[in-house]
Amino acid sequence: MFVLLNLKAYACDPVEIAAAAADVADETGVRVAVAPQTAAIGRVAETGVETWAQHVSGVGSGSHTGSTLAEAVADAGATGTLLNHSERRRRLADIDAGIRAAERAGLETVVCANNPRQIAAAARLEPDAVAVEPPELIGTGTPVSKADPEIVTDSVAAAGDEVPVLCGAGISTGEDLLAAAELGAEGVLLASGVAKADDPRAALEALVEPL
Ligand SMILES: O=C(CO)COP(=O)(O)O
């Protein structure tokens, strides 16, 4: 299972969480990546943890003020990027351009979507993986794998054989992770369960413990 930890814009210490994630990955062999704020990518990557961007713009270098270049986040140490997160929705053409920009920069891509229909469309754009996250469950602590297991199994079917599916929203425990795996997800995307925890290291350790 791939554990992709999205720190969003939470008021957490990204380096402390990244160092804990690097240790947990080393100690358990579980693939754990951290997606911090863009400005923290370099500092997070220095911990040795697999580092992702939360978003890249679908542009190359040029006159694009305020954009986030895929090449720039790759230079800073990121090896992958989320695209079209529920809190950063893009139009289809922008998602396509974002995937192509990420590919040019050598970044792995996970395209997020709300439901199995959107997962089918996202998978046709040929990202490395897709992630289904029902927006109504994000940040609730109610795991998608329990509240709406069919959205995961239907997304796995919709994505087809070629594109792995992650699931997210409300995932915070090892039990949630196992449930996601049983539904066919190859990873989880999570945020508040670790980023807002009093002890993020302990939260991460407990999360991967049953794997
Ligand atoms: O949006 C998410 C991850 O990208 C899920 O957030 P929560 O884990 O806080 O529900």
From TrEMBL:
BP term (GO), one? gluconeogenesis
Q: Which InterPro entries match?
A: Aldolase_TIM, TIM_sf, Triosephosphate_isomerase, Triosephosphate_isomerase_arc, Triosephosphate_isomerase_AS
List the keywords (alphabetical).
Answer: Cytoplasm, Gluconeogenesis, Glycolysis, Isomerase
Q: Which domain of life is it from?
A: Archaea
One example GO MF annotation? triose-phosphate isomerase activity
Where in the cell does this protein reside?
Cytoplasm
Q: Which residues of this protein are catalytic?
A: 85 (electrophile), 133 (proton acceptor)
Task: Name the catalysed reactions.
Answer: D-glyceraldehyde 3-phosphate = dihydroxyacetone phosphate
Alphabetized Pfam families for the sequence: TIM
Residues passing through the membrane, by range: none
Q: In which pathway does it act?
A: Carbohydrate biosynthesis; gluconeogenesis; Carbohydrate degradation; glycolysis; D-glyceraldehyde 3-phosphate from glycerone phosphate: step 1/1
EC?
5.3.1.1
Q: Which residues form the signal peptide?
A: none
- Please tell me one Gene Ontology term that the record gives under cellular component: cytoplasm
Q: Which residues bind substrate?
A: 6-8, 138, 170, 191-192
Describe the family membership recorded for this protein in Swiss-Prot or TrEMBL: Belongs to the triosephosphate isomerase family.
Q: What does this protein do?
A: Involved in the gluconeogenesis. Catalyzes stereospecifically the conversion of dihydroxyacetone phosphate (DHAP) to D-glyceraldehyde-3-phosphate (G3P).
Complexes and interactors: Homotetramer; dimer of dimers.
Q: What is this protein called?
A: Triosephosphate isomerase
Q: Which organism is it from?
A: Natronomonas aquatica
Q: Which gene encodes it?
A: tpiA
